[in-house]
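Progress note, project year one: complex with adenosine-5'-triphosphate.
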Amino acid sequence: MTRWLSIQEAINKERGDVAIRGWVWRERGSNALKFIVIRDSSSIIQCVIEKDKVPEDMWLAADKLRIEASVEIEGTIKEDKRAPTGFEVSVKKLQVIGESDNFPIAKDQSPEFLLDNRHLWLRSRKMTAILKIRSTYVQAREEFFRKEGFYKFDPPILQPNQSEGGSTLFEVKYYKDKTFLSQSWQLYAEAAVFALEKVYDFAPTFRAELSKTSRHLSEFWMAEMEAAWWNLKDVSEFAKKEIKYCLSAVLAKHEKDLIFLGQDAEKLKKVLAKDWPTIKYREAIKILKEKEGMDVSFGKDLRTIEEDALMNHFDTPIVVTHYPKEIMAFYKPADAQHPDEALCFDMLAPEGYGEIVGGSQRDTDIDALKESLEKMGEKPENYEWYLDLRKYGSVPHSGYGLGTERVLAWICHLDNIKDAIAFPRTALRWKP
Ligand code: ATP
Ligand code: MG
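Model obtained:
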């Protein structure tokens, strides 16, 4: 039986007979010599077919090969400095598995065209590199939480309530009733911590984001955690530890992919080695005033332009805590010492990537919760099950949500969050 090698394994072998399979990435040739570059998930390699050295039917098949045809190749590999990955296979046997004609994606196509053809564009080296990094990132995060003694907890995706503001809810017809797609697992995680104490998840999350920005998707994968007995400091420091763990796994395995994506891997290593500062919202608005001449009065949320201006003064992610209580979600408690501040935090990434994590301690005061719900125009009776959690042995607890695509956009140095997910959904796009 043929022992198929991945292209990378063939390259690692350096010389001798190899059998590889993949797709035609580039092809060119003359009437005597044909060069085809084959790609698989591991790498690319140049293969050369000489008319004089192969049977005629094989030469004809090779001559007909077009971009993205799938092939099996047996031949001899050797070093060749001129070839794109430094090695070349001299082909002895070629089998066309699936023909391809007029692959629609050629050079210099617009981002919208590539998004319309996302099902094919996934094969590009760019998307392949990003998707590999994403896979490693997600796996590292699983490892991290398991090592830290957390349980994976699966929340419902169809939910009766909002947790993050009614304006971004997706309504779903539910038999004769209606429900909403999950905006966060949080309220359910708060139920789970009374059983499991430390929980995490990785789940699709839906927000009808009407402001079209390069940071917002309508469907994204939120990576959340919740822990009983933990306070604001515990969770905000833990968020740094989590991201550092995952970043270090990506750097260990994907330096080449990062460089291919235009990221400076050395810079990321420095970011990893540094301490990531924590400042209060009040300090952040002071920096904005003194160093950027921007007036943000206490009580205003930081918008994208302010977050970006603030991050001009940091080259690592930072944590900003104690945002004004009145603009925060209903479950974020006031700081007993400074009742106008909430025990909450955001983590902001450098270089204009914006907020990557949002979290807080959770309010345990049932009356304060009811009051905040009413202030937002919600009926506390719709949250009865959630308020129950405060009636039976409530304990302090905290958690956060991390936007996987936001973090990946930063790590991979992407222009747009849409490239951090295979099939992006936004206000304007839900196909293919
Ligand atoms: P933003 O102000 O940027 O809209 P948010 O305050 O609504 O963010 P949270 O509710 O705190 O965000 O959600 C937790 C994390 O989920 C955010 O820090 C971010 O990383 C991610 N996130 C939120 N909304 C989106 C979205 N529409 N697309 C992608 N990621 C998102
Ligand atoms: Mg939002």
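The chain has a mean pLDDT of 96.
The first helix runs from residue 7 to 13.
No further modelling is planned for this target in the current period.
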